[in-house]
Amino acid sequence: MTAPIVVHRAAGTGGRRVRIRTQTAGLARSDADLIEFLRRAGLPDAWDLLDDPHWVEWQGGRPHEYGAG
User: What pTM was estimated for this model as a whole?
Assistant: First the structure.
């Protein structure tokens, strides 16, 4: 099973593209940005999901790291 939320590798300028199911949600530069995307997608209690691999797949880097400052 693939996680419904994918946080892609960091972009060269910082930030990570976020996909929720099949839709690109935006470029997150922090966990707060990621949580806002998830809230807009109907997941108001998303903080508890960030470290659950059944919900979120962090690709190409460590979780909670968003690259250049």
Answer: 0.92
